[in-house]
Amino acid sequence: MSFFRGTDWSLFTLLDQHRLYLRGGVEEPLVASQSSEFSSSQVLSAIENITEDIIKSLSRNEAPVLILKNRSDWGNIQFKDSVGLQMTSNCTTRKVRSDCPKSAPKFALFLKILSIIYKMVQTNIYATKRDIFYTDPAHFCNQRVVDDIINDISCMLKIPRRNLHILSTSKGCIAGNLSYIEEDGTRVNCTCSTAAAVPSNVEGLRNLITEAKFILVIEKDATFQRLLDDNFCSRMYPCILITGKGVPDMNTRLLVRKLWDTCQIPVFALMDADPHGIEIMCIYKYGSVSMSFEAHRLTVPAIRWLGLLPSDFDRLNIPQNVLIPLTKQDQTKLDSLHIRPYITYQPAWKKELDIMTTSKMKAEIQALTSFSSDYLSRVYLPNKLQFGGWI
């Protein structure tokens, strides 16, 4: 059975404009990712400059201080529709002092991790954040401490983590019409039936080959697996499916960005119609506050919201018994989304948020199985792609 009746003008129109990012009917050039290459000598020099400042402070009988940008302060963020959330150049800072009992242990951990990075860059060795934690778990206490310090160092030095020789562990998966060669020479052929893990070194990928007509970013692994089981990307047009399994890790975000830069094809988001799913989509599209200093490498502003939309509840007559009332936490998240700077640029999104606010209901993608087990792959997605049901 064919999924389509007639020509799918909407998707092909989007494909014809694949070198342009369309916003509000105005054509803007796609923003190419900025170069993130730093030589080893540049990285070493940056760390040496920090060390030199510490030594100078000690020579003056002054307590050394590290000055860090406040990465989680919305007051330090500016929004640009073609890039996303960016850290301002004159943002507020905080100090990590070596002479304060409260901050001295953290100061020491900063120096320890800087030392580890310096040695890795010198010897051309790479390590994951988890590897670094296990160099001294007693003093690091937990992985979150290491993660935060590494991000602060990357922000302070203005050098991406990859150039600091730090790799992130990937949790995402990818499948579909795509093949590539990893940095070590391994060729990976993604298929529509078996998922491949998102590589830990996305920047090292080369020879990306695809005939995909679009990329579908999926919130949940369960939905991703369901589409694979339904052979979605073989029965439809050639496409690429990717999931970050919830809140996406750094490598999944890097890969979506790299695919967009390289393939220049439409990117759609398939999320739960709830505040959490919407926020995850915003992370892919516009980035997060804490990683705003790397927005130009991580965001894909051209992402379209394909579904599940709150307006789909009435449009599809989704049964009330599969809709879920918003919790107090959901309402708080929804209220925060309403005042995000990018919502002003997305009136159609705001309308969907208003629908959710009024109905006080949410729904998971799995709610569509109330119609049939394969309704998502057989009816919902094909019709959305055929008739331009994205915003």
How would you describe the overall organization of this protein?
With 391 residues, this protein is of the alpha/beta class. It is built from 15 helices and 19 strands. It has helices spanning 9-16, 40-59, 104-123, 129-133, 137-140, 143-157, 221-229, 232-235, 250-263, 275-286, 295-298, 312-315, 328-338, 347-359, 375-387, and strands at residues 20-23, 26-29, 65-69, 77-80, 84-87, 93-97, 127-128, 166-167, 173-176, 178-181, 187-190, 196-197, 206-209, 214-218, 239-243, 267-270, 304-307, 324-325, 361-362. The protein has a six-stranded mixed beta sheet, with helices on both faces. Strands 11-10-13 form a three-stranded antiparallel beta sheet, covered by helices on one side. The chain has a two-stranded antiparallel sheet with strand order 1-2. A hairpin with a 5-residue loop joins strand 10 and strand 11. The protein is globular, with a radius of gyration of 23 Å. The chain starts with 8 loop residues before the first helix and ends with a helix.
Features:
single chain; 391 residues; alpha/beta; six-stranded mixed sheet; three-stranded antiparallel sheet
How would the blueprint of this fold be written?
Layout: H1 9-16, E1 20-23, E2 26-29, H2 40-59, E3 65-69, E4 77-80, E5 84-87, E6 93-97, H3 104-123, E7 127-128, H4 129-133, H5 137-140, H6 143-157, E8 166-167, E9 173-176, E10 178-181, E11 187-190, E12 196-197, E13 206-209, E14 214-218, H7 221-229, H8 232-235, E15 239-243, H9 250-263, E16 267-270, H10 275-286, H11 295-298, E17 304-307, H12 312-315, E18 324-325, H13 328-338, H14 347-359, E19 361-362, H15 375-387
Parallel strand pairs: 7-8, 14-15, 14-16, 16-17
Antiparallel strand pairs: 1-2, 3-6, 4-5, 9-12, 9-15, 10-11, 10-13, 18-19
